Amino acid sequence: MPLRRAHGLTQIALATLAWMLFCQPGMAGDIGSAIEVGLLQPGKASPTRPNVVLILADDLGFSDLAPYGGEINTPTLSALAASGVSFSNYHTAASCAPSRAMLLTGVDSHRAGVPNIPEMIPPEQRQHAHYQGVLGRNVVTIASLLQDSGYHTYMAGKWHLGMTPDLLPYSRGFERTLSMADSGADNWEQKPYLPIYEKANWFADGKEFELPNDFYSSRFLIDKTIEFIDGNLSDEQPFFAYVPFQAVHMPVQAPQEFIDRYMGVYDQGWEVLRRERHKRATDLGVIPAGSTMVTMSTTEDWDELSQAEKRYQAKRMAVYAAMVEAMDHHLGRLVKHLKANGQYDNTVFIFTSDNGSEASGSVDPDNALTRFALARQGYTNEYDSLGLKGSFNSLPPSFSSASVSPLAFYKFYSGEGGMRVPLIVAGAGIKQREGFSKAFTYVTDIAPTVLELTAVAAPGSRYGGRVVEPMIGQTLLPLLRGDVEQVHADNEAIGYELAGNAALFQGDYKIVINRGPLGDNQWHLFNIATDPGETKDLAGKMPGRLQQMLSLYQGYVTDNGVLPVLPNYNDRRQVAINGLQDRFGRKILLFLLSLVVLLPFFIAYRMRRRR
């Protein structure tokens, strides 16, 4: 490194430390907390701040990991869980982009500009500035704050918070990036997984990027993370690495060597798997003893399937499990590398998922329409090649219900299966905790936790010359130290909404409403501490609490500008409409819609002529 640059970095580091100590209200307390937990070394002019690796799985179910009751082999995450703190009552948004916005900013998704993924936002909502589905300029990412304080900041993985140059992670605080901007993409090659995208949009340091021929997503993302970290090791500055995997978002794909390990494991079907995970989760203390679970209406009767159908469905789950283990394996390579270069002992690992399991796979893979649609995208769903290059695989609702066992609902819905996911924090200064922390925690808590771990101040009312939203989450550091049993007061209300599905949490209680086709569009009240499966509706027994929490939810709606959806809103249909419009323009869309409307009249006319 040139002497001038090294001297400049020293000046910046000293100035930053002085600014944190003397210019920021409350900052001395943050540094004191970090010293207390062992993350900073007192008595030194330049405190040693930890590296932070934030790992985000995509669409991972609550009980998929072995420490949470799953049968999937996850030795890397199991080791982290055993050495740190695991949370059994952590919640996030039920969809990817809102979760990512809150994770990186500590701000509610509606205020951050990401109330839903952009692909699902209807036109009547898109007219509003905070309903664009991309990260607003009124929020600051933790990457920006860490970079300002002397951290190297890296990102390799799925972004999905905007793809214009000013919205890519390279412009939002990340020094080195390899990002996929879409909601998902193929894991073996550079191609889109849905026809709403013309191509798979990958970017490196803000510029369009072509994937290598030997690409597999989990391996490649860890390769790039290691490359980024090694590129600046010599200057001894700490780093923040954000690794949002594509696993296990559809298309669910994995190397054959991992698939082979799960062949035959799921031959008994989804109902048995859901019950087995429920029992293991109870035995491990993930959920309270005696808690029950419901059977989702979308769960098929395994015994009614033919042997060929059972064989095919079991392999779909085997590929899913293989993709989870492959993710864990490559994460293990990163851990091993950090140990080899002397960085592991000064690194904090945070692992979670952006939402619960997705239930979007067709129950009937032989459906002609399914095969036609896949062929148009260059995919097959043949049994022998399932999960490999050129194959499209996804979980049917029945196995998704097993993935989130013993919870109800899944991705997009506000049931616990869509919102409650694993959270593991381990590494430098994190004391090992036996069992699980049962404290209610929320996705907006991660950003303030990272800031306190690194002794970086949260933004004030302004940042970079513009007004910004304050963080609303609570730091988890007192929980990680073992000083407290909860960070959210029993009377604190935390609201949530996604496309008309909504919830409000207060203490052990949750009110929730889910739209159709799975929900009944009615508010329900549950004690999710004793009944995480949401099997006992308390609305009739506790009408006063229900009304009080409904009033608090209305306050959340008003304070955060939550917009209603029309009664006929359908998220999947909206994806198709928005995709056609974005790819082909309004004229083509109007033509196709007109064709759909006029086609029945044309057919009726032709039939009359024939008579």
Key features?
single chain; 611 residues; alpha/beta; Alkaline Phosphatase, subunit A; Arylsulfatase, C-terminal domain; 3 domains; 10-stranded mixed beta sheet; 4-stranded antiparallel beta sheet; 17 helices; 18 strands; globular; disordered N terminus
Strand content: 5-15%
How is the largest sheet built, in terms of strand order? 7-6-5-4-8-1-9-10-2-11
Helix content: 25-40%
Low-confidence runs of at least 5 consecutive residues: 1-46
Structural class: alpha/beta
Report the CATH superfamily of the largest domain: Alkaline Phosphatase, subunit A
CATH topology of the largest domain: Alkaline Phosphatase, subunit A
* Rg on CA atoms, Å: 24 Å
Average residue-wise pLDDT:
90
Q: Supply the CATH class of the largest domain.
A: Alpha Beta
Please give the number of β-strands: 18
Q: How does the major sheet shape up?
A: 10 strands, mixed
CATH architecture label of the largest domain: 3-Layer(aba) Sandwich
The number of helical runs is 17
Name the shape in a single word: globular
Q: What distance separates the N and C termini? A: 87 Å
The total tally of domains equals: 3
